[in-house]
Design brief:
The complex is a heterodimer of chains A (434) and B (295). In chain A, 49% of the residues lie in helices and 14% in strands. Chain A is an alpha/beta fold and 434 residues long. Chain B is mainly alpha-helical. Chain B is built from 12 helices and 2 strands. In chain B, strands 1-2 form a two-stranded antiparallel sheet. In chain B, a hairpin with a 6-residue loop joins β1 and β2 (52-54). Classes of the chains: A alpha/beta (434), B mainly alpha (295). The interface between A and B is large, with 41 and 33 residues.
Chain lengths: 434, 295
């Protein structure tokens, strides 16, 4: 017998079982504890069946994962599944040909998929104007108010009665400062918490065309008297040393966890990190509002990310993606994810299951974010979906830094941010006109 | 009678063959990317390249009608000049000192070269930690001296921070070249001057520094290019261009628009502008500054 043929046969025998299993590449942006969560999901799915193998690959933070996927797509090596943050949603939706709608993946795979089981504010965000669901909601968070209960006690306030309105926040901040707190109040994600969620929470538009849901010709309108009033209020607090700016994106998270800042508005997904690392008792409460604004509080907008299916793969691979998404849509899987990470339960069934298990009574505050989201949304509060959103958020950061530094007026800053942001929207509209 | 300087080859293809490897390298690593940048700069594309349209000079017009982009020219000029001049001066000082050390000279040299092995992003983070407004050791020390350090809102402090990080990163490189330059200066020249009664300061300015001028000139070109192109990771890690746009140097915006915001056309247009600036600067340096260099 020919030696070469023998080797070939041996190689085939070794390779054959591996070939039978279809590999699904999943690029994500979950590091640390969240990375373990993602790997656990893939492992659990892989253990439950033999046909498909989901391979999660950590690609850095959200921007980096998206940039890597864009480069890979252009080179013809895109992953099957890509996790994209909420501000990248409009970009993904507009890039026809690069993605396969999740509704299509599921129906092609012959799997039942009902978008109505999802929390409306979540599913609505990822649904195209024609009603087709484009991506699978995965990890959704929203903006909440975190506060340091020990600091409240030390300042003579009731730690179980967090401030619910902005005037109350100002009073609490003054009391905290009087007891020597150097940073009574701060915020992460200034645009998300103080303008985007703020708008939905007060049932006013952030941008026209239903905040971008109804077309690429949406334009920013966050320079109304209400927005100016709120930023003016924060600027006043800043001048008195009651509000302290701690930087862009999630930079302020660490200042709350370390105990430096006593109150902050940020993501509900910070819950897990605070619970694990903070050396004080902390509480979560709903985002503050202005009680004299009619319709407030409405609901807050989502952050976090969803899973997109990239185009150009084989039908067998899409079947595998469908099977994995089917697994991810199971109420028990979602309930477990919600309890583990602090992300929202993205289906109503997962919420009810968590509630029945007594999780919210054992972990008071964990349901705050859920209650802010599981509400009937209005056209103004459904969410904000804009092109070039990454740049728009950076523009807002830049202009508001001028306000915190006392270099420019609030009205001027918001007008400039709207003008510069609209240039970005025009450019996006032009680039994606088809 | 002029001496024939040209080399004659027997085969007329041989010279082409000999320069070919060099040409291939230059073409692949310089002309091709530069050509791509030029091509991209006249296009408007969506992120995935699904729809692409020719927009002529639109990307450039948009940049030049943007006040904040024009302002970043000034920011870049301040940043680059300070990085290059501080980097060269400090490195020269260190090299002159290290050159005089007799015992443990290698140790000093090795320690001074270390920062060069640090990645720019790490350098940015390192300095960021030291100057972090509430927890950094340097900002803490400054506060006890009565200086309130907050580069999150103070543009000048933010600029100082990225300049320090960028200079620190580049000193090693400059230091190595200066040290090599100093060691190649014949001792006899300096000794002769000393015998003639020239004081150390005088000897440095009239003998050492002129003899180092080719090195200094080379480093000036390299440092300007470094400040223009290689510093975006430091800015990204330390300030992200903030507060406002106070530290948004040109290359950072090009990086940000291309890699974070995925606006390839806009980013390519900025790269082309940067390329033009650096070519112009280098030409100016070679034409005017080099005249004062004594080889």
């Amino acid at each position: 017998m020919n030696f070469k043929a023998l080797i070939a046969a041996a190689v085939l025998a070794v390779a054959a079982p591996a070939q039978a299993q279809v590999e699904i590449q999943w690029w994500h942006a979950m590091g640390g504890a969240l990375g373990e969560w993602v790997n656990g999901l893939a492992k659990d799915f892989n253990d439950q069946q033999k046909d498909y193998k989901v391979v999660p690959v950590f690609k850095g933070n959200y921007d980096e994962a998206m940039t890597a996927a864009v480069a890979a797509y252009r080179a013809g090596n895109a992953p099957h599944i890509l996790q994209v943050f909420e501000v990248g949603t409009a970009t993904m939706m507009a890039s026809k040909g690069a993605i396969v709608p999740v509704a299509k993946v599921m129906s092609d795979a012959g799997l039942k998929f009902d978008p109505k089981t999802y929390v409306p504010a979540v599913s609505g965000y990822y649904t195209a104007p024609n009603g087709q669901m484009l991506s699978l909601p995965f990890n959704s968070s929203t903006t909440v108010f975190h506060y340091n209960k020990d600091a409240f006690k030390a300042a003579g306030m009731d730690p179980e009665k967090p401030p619910t309105t902005w005037p109350e926040v100002a009073l609490a901040a003054a009391k905290l400062k009087a007891t020597g707190h150097k940073c009574p109040l701060t915020t992460s994600w200034v645009s998300w918490t103080q303008l985007e969620s703020f708008s939905a929470w007060h049932n006013v538009e952030f941008a026209t065309k239903r905040n971008g849901f109804n077309g690429l010709d949406a334009r920013l309108v966050f320079n109304t008297p209400l927005h100016v009033r709120h930023i003016e209020n924060l600027a006043n607090l800043s001048r008195q040393g009651l509000f302290v700016y701690k930087g862009r994106a999630g930079a302020a998270d660490a200042t709350f966890v370390s105990g430096e800042c006593a109150m902050y508005t940020g993501s509900s997904a910070a819950y897990g990190n605070i619970k694990r690392n903070a050396k004080f008792a902390s509480g979560i409460s709903a985002l503050p509002y202005y009680p004299d604004v009619p319709g407030a509080p409405q609901n807050t907008v989502i952050g976090g990310a969803s899973l997109w299916v990239m185009s150009g793969k084989t039908p067998g691979e899409y079947k595998g993606v469908g099977a994995f998404f089917d697994y991810l849509s199971r109420a028990d899987v979602q309930a477990k994810s919600h309890q583990m990470t602090g992300y929202l339960p993205i289906t109503l069934a997962a919420f009810e299951m968590t509630e029945k298990s007594g999780f919210y009574t054992k972990n008071p505050g964990a349901d705050v974010a859920v209650n802010q989201m599981i509400r009937k949304t209005t056209d103004k509060s459904r969410g904000i979906r804009l092109g070039n959103f990454v740049q728009i958020r950076a523009i807002i950061d830049e202009e508001l830094e001028g306000v915190w530094a006392g270099k420019q007026g609030v009205k001027e800053a918001l007008d400039t941010a709207v003008r510069r942001g609209n240039e970005q929207l025009e450019r996006f509209e032009k680039a994606n006109r088809s | 009678m002029a001496i024939e300087k040209r080399v004659r080859f027997g085969n007329r293809w041989l010279p082409w063959l000999l320069v070919a490897p060099q040409m291939v390298v230059v073409t692949i690593f310089f002309f091709w990317p530069a050509g791509s940048a030029l091509y991209q700069s006249v296009l408007l594309e969506d992120a995935f390249g699904g729809s692409s349209q020719f927009v002529g000079l639109d990307n450039f017009n948009r940049l030049f009608s943007d006040g904040s982009y024009l302002a970043s020219f000034r920011t870049t000029a301040v940043f680059s000049l300070l990085v290059a001049s501080c980097g060269i001066c400090i490195a020269l000082l260190l090299a002159v000192m290290a050159n005089r050390v007799i015992r443990g000279a290698t140790l000093y040299t090795t320690l001074l070269v270390w920062p060069y092995a640090v990645a720019p992003a790490i350098a940015g983070v390192l300095w960021l930690f030291m100057f972090a407004p509430s927890v950094g050791i340097v900002s803490h020390a400054l506060r006890s001296l009565g200086i309130e350090w907050n580069h999150l809102l103070n543009g000048n402090q933010a600029m100082a921070l990225i300049i320090m990080a960028a200079v620190w990163k580049q000193i090693s490189y400059n230091f190595l070249f200066f040290l090599a330059g100093l060691q190649s200066i014949p001792k006899s020249l300096i000794e002769a001057a000393a015998i003639d009664g020239a004081r150390p300061w005088h000897r440095f300015w009239t003998i050492v520094f002129p003899l180092l001028s080719p090195t200094t000139f080379f480093l000036l070109v390299i440092n300007i290019v470094y400040a223009f192109f290689d510093t975006f990771a430091i800015v990204d890690a330390a300030t992200q261009g903030g507060p406002g746009k106070d530290t948004a140097i040109l290359v950072y915006k090009a990086y940000y628009d291309g890699f974070k915001a995925m606006d390839l056309g806009g980013s390519a247009a900025q790269s082309v502008i940067l390329m033009a600036i650096v070519i112009a600067l280098t030409v100016v340096q070679f034409r005017y500054v080099e005249r004062r260099v004594q080889y």
